[in-house]
Design a protein that fits this description.
With 406 residues, this protein is α/β, with parallel strands linked by helices. The protein is built from 16 helices and 12 strands. The strands form 2 sheets. The protein has a 7-stranded mixed beta sheet with strand order 2-8-7-6-5-3-4, with helices on both faces. Helix 4 packs antiparallel against helix 13, helix 5 packs parallel to helix 13 and helix 14 packs parallel to helix 16. It is globular, with a radius of gyration of 23 Å. It binds pyridoxal-5'-phosphate. The site of pyridoxal-5'-phosphate has 12 residues, from helix 6.
Length: 406
Amino acid sequence: MGATGVLAAGALSVPELTGSPMGVRHSAALSGFGASGEVYKELGVTTVINGQGTMTVLGGSLIRPEVEAVMAQAARHFVSIPDLEVAAGNKIAQMLKLPDGYTVMVTSGAAGALQSGLAGILTKDNPEFIKQLPDLTGMKSEVIIQKSHRYPFDHQLRATGVKLVEVETRDDVQRAICDRTAMMHFSNFANAEGQIKVDEWLKIAKQHNIPAFNDAAADTPPVSHLWDYANMGYDLVTFSGGKAIRGPQCAGLLLGRKDLVSYALLNNSPYEDTLGRGQKIGKEEIAGMVKALELYLNEDHDALAKEWSRRLNVVSDAIKRVPGVTTSFFEPDIANHVPTMKISWDMKRVNIAPRDASKALMDSKPSIVLGGSHDGLEMTAFMLKPGEDKIIAERLTAILKDHVAS
Ligand SMILES: *Cc1c(COP(=O)(O)O)cnc(C)c1O
């Protein structure tokens, strides 16, 4: 009794779970749905080998067996969610050695953290304002953002009712700041694109006493980013839980000033009549996030990066034997800062368009997803399970060989 369906299915198909030191209690063999140990197969949905990265559309990342075990423990009891949020947040703040006056809230994801973090800045602890959102009568109503930092996730900011005021130059910012300004938003991955960089953006916000938010959702590794921006002085910072940290897929972190985090909590589930009631976060995800971070912090990150490069080289060595195929390696400076391989070929010698090669990979058995664009494919190895590098190497080599011009 008590094990979740997820855990029970895992117990049938993931051997390392059986020997887990966590004292996991397994349920008896399932009958009905999940009995095969392959729930996706039972539903008729194809699983894929993920050589692209931490894509939410593919399910983000895979939690470790220890996280599964902690989530199952959390699932066995009732608990006050507001108490649990505060306790888990304080523990995470300690684990990350955040500056005095900072704490953490486990959210439904980085997107949820954007919305609730801003909602809290707008409403503080005023119960009328909390109920009133997204009607901003009586509250501040604008968020300043660099034009090059606009992105799909700013929808979560706009959902609070604020207007985004776009700026490009330093003068633009000075002109934009006024008594309606609630927050200055920074999209960390766009640091290189904007005229104003991460430290100067914060400095301007501080000069005007405006809270500054940094969305660093996909910006681990390096692991130090988890505390760097709080140490720098950002009032609120968010990370995805379900990307490289490999926490529960429906979890994220909102790090920040204690007052602002407490206001964010008030604007979120479990409280009803709040903007964030739809961003429910469960006891299982909250506990799982604590465990995922503990494991992530203790990981040998250099060894991991080496292993990811080794896997890329397995694929590279195989496909380069097809005449006309070349590979090159890079690491994005920021966001998904992991070894990445670009795969290109001379279309006169290997006559298949990258998007058709992508489709052939997706249609193969097992199905494989790589990133790509018009001029080639792109691959990362940090979401691969052991042995999947070899499968990708074989399949991709076969596809490219099939199209060698005669
Ligand atoms: C992935 C991502 C988000 C959303 O994160 P979730 O945890 O999936 O909600 C927000 N901002 C950026 C920059 C991201 O990369």
